[in-house]
């Protein structure tokens, strides 16, 4: 697969095969959480689901321990068993169950994207493939390009904007970040275009924001 084929591909399981250096465990876990968050509207009736997503994300960041995650699983498990599996339908809580499994498996591409696609209706699955592929590109970056981020681009304004988006999960100021980076001397088109693209989705773990905040 060449770069143009990779950019056009809408199957995340195929996209991830092109990385010669595997993305970090944190990146994998944040992709899993981002895929699950796309189900937030379906999981709204279960308050525990919202908490599980927050715990999983904090675990990816090293803010909670494996023991704390396991304690959450013991609380969550009865809900998952109670939902069961209706004929012809996946258990809507399956993706959250896989969050616990992958948190113990380490940095590898998990079953979560596929489990999320199984939860949505068949007519929505093509859009889910497309959305998950966009999330993967945002978090993992392009395997065909290597970006060297210069320390002088990391100005106070650039860091403040990046940290604010990261903590709030509101990435609407990405174009402003591009302007701030350019003012700081950044001339890397991959970085600037990623920030300014109107079609690009951004979530926690975005490769540009991670470069600014020195996260792996």
Structural write-up:
This protein has 216 residues and is mostly helical. It has 2 domains: 3-140, no CATH class; 151-213, no CATH class. It is built from 13 helices and no strands. It has helices at residues 3-8, 12-15, 25-37, 40-43, 47-60, 66-83, 94-105, 112-119, 125-140, 156-168, 174-183, 189-196, 207-213. The chain is globular and about 55 Å long. It starts with a helix and ends with a helix. The relative contact order is 0.15.
Summarize this, please?
The protein is mainly α. The protein is built from 13 helices and no strands.
Any chance you could write out the topology, listing elements then pairs?
Blueprint: H1 3-8, H2 12-15, H3 25-37, H4 40-43, H5 47-60, H6 66-83, H7 94-105, H8 112-119, H9 125-140, H10 156-168, H11 174-183, H12 189-196, H13 207-213
Helix pairs in contact: 3-5, 3-7, 3-9, 5-6, 5-7, 6-7, 7-8, 8-9, 10-11, 10-13, 11-12
Descriptive key words:
single chain; 216 residues; mainly alpha; 62% helix
Query: Which structural class do the helices and strands define?
Result: mainly alpha
Whole-Å distance between the termini? 25 Å
DSSP, total strands: 0
Q: Please tell me the total number of domains.
A: 2
Report the sheet with the most strands, covering strand number, pairing sense and barrel closure.
Answer: none
Q: What is the H/E order?
A: HHHHHHHHHHHHH
- Helix count equals 13
Summed over residues and divided by their number, the pLDDT gives a mean of: 89
Estimate the global geometry from the Cα principal axes. Answer: globular
Strand content: under 5%
In helices, the fraction of residues equals 55-70%
Rg, rounded, reads: 18 Å
Taking pLDDT < 50 over at least 5 consecutive residues as the criterion, the unreliable ranges are: none
